[in-house]
């Protein structure tokens, strides 16, 4: 008797509960949350390429700090399993320094960058699953701006910090968990390849350093499906 009542109750709940459908063709998905760019840079030595000291190798390397900003994703479901996605964010700000050069180790200043990334994303599960893992790959264009030399670096004669804009590739894994038919929790990890060259002036000489940044980008947030 109790088993029959329990079965009837579960059936009634199943009928009454709204069906939650995950992503399907034509959906537009907007996600927002905290995104952290954790840099893993590799750097060439610092070399002077212009001025009286042109050709001088100062040795050492460049370093770039981490930052957390507001991350945004915009995705369009082309089919039930494939989407086109654009990654955006408020500008990341990174501290820039040189270490163990012939001029010593110095914090030079800071720069900002935006890495808009366009990806093709694959969702392997059907749209009846509330859990939607995905993988993706794409291209990014990193824009460097608002570079500045600060503090003691200025007093030592450094000026005009500049980073080159650059193309790269990216790969990602992530997952959505549908809380309702429209709202989801999202988590994602992304790898972006950024190879750039940074320039800084030192007492009339221009020094440059090649930096292979390759940040890991982590995002946790909420999404809404239109």
What is the secondary structure topology, with strand pairs?
Blueprint: H1 2-16, E1 28-38, E2 42-43, E3 46-50, E4 57-59, E5 61-64, E6 67-77, E7 82-89, E8 92-101, E9 104-114, E10 117-122, E11 131-149, H2 152-155, E12 158-163, E13 166-178, E14 183-192, E15 195-202, E16 205-212, E17 216-225
Antiparallel strand pairs: 1-6, 1-17, 2-16, 3-4, 3-16, 5-8, 6-7, 7-10, 8-9, 9-11, 10-11, 11-13, 12-15, 13-14, 14-17, 15-16
Provide structural commentary:
This protein has 226 residues and is mostly beta strands. The protein has a single domain, classed as Beta Barrel (Porin). The chain has two helices and 17 strands. It has helices spanning 2-16, 152-155, and strands at residues 28-38, 42-43, 46-50, 57-59, 61-64, 67-77, 82-89, 92-101, 104-114, 117-122, 131-149, 158-163, 166-178, 183-192, 195-202, 205-212, 216-225. The strands form two sheets. Strands 1-6-7-10-11-13-14-17 form an eight-stranded antiparallel β-barrel. A hairpin with a 2-residue loop joins strand 8 and strand 9 (104-114). The protein is elongated and about 65 Å long. Residues 5-18 have low confidence and may be disordered.
Give the fraction of residues assigned to helices: under 10%
Structural class comes to mainly beta
Radius of gyration over all CA atoms, rounded: 24 Å
Low-confidence stretches: 5-18
> What is the CA-CA span between the terminal residues?
45 Å
Shape: elongated
What is the number of helices?
2
Output mean pLDDT. Answer: 87
CATH topology tier name:
Porin
**Beta strands, count:** 17
Share of β-strand residues: over 45%
Order of helices and strands: HEEEEEEEEEEEHEEEEEE
What CATH first level would be assigned?
A: Mainly Beta
Biggest beta-sheet profile: 8 strands, antiparallel, barrel
* Total domain modules: 1
User: Which architecture does the CATH hierarchy give at level 2?
Assistant: Beta Barrel
Name the strands of the widest sheet in spatial order: 1-6-7-10-11-13-14-17
């Amino acid at each position: 008797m109790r088993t029959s009542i329990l079965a009837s109750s579960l059936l009634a709940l199943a009928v009454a509960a709204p069906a939650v459908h995950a992503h399907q063709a034509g959906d537009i998905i907007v996600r927002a949350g905290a995104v952290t760019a954790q840099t893993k840079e590799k750097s060439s030595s610092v070399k002077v390429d212009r001025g009286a000291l042109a050709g001088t190798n100062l040795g050492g390397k460049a370093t770039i700090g981490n930052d957390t900003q507001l991350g945004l994703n915009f995705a369009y479901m082309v089919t039930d399993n494939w989407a086109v996605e654009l990654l955006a964010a408020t500008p990341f700000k990174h501290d820039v320094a040189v270490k163990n050069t012939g001029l010593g180790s110095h914090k030079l200043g800071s720069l900002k960058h935006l890495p808009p990334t366009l990806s093709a994303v694959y969702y392997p599960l059907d749209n009846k699953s509330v859990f939607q893992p995905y993988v993706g790959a794409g291209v990014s264009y990193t824009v460097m701006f608002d570079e500045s030399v600060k503090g003691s670096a200025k007093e030592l004669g450094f000026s005009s910090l500049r980073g080159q804009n650059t193309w790269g590739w990216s790969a990602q894994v992530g997952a959505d968990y549908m809380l309702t038919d429209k709202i989801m929790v999202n988590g994602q990890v992304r790898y972006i390849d950024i190879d750039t060259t940074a320039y800084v002036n030192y007492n009339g000489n221009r020094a440059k350093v090649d930096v292979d940044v390759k940040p890991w980008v982590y995002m946790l947030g909420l999404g809404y499906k239109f």
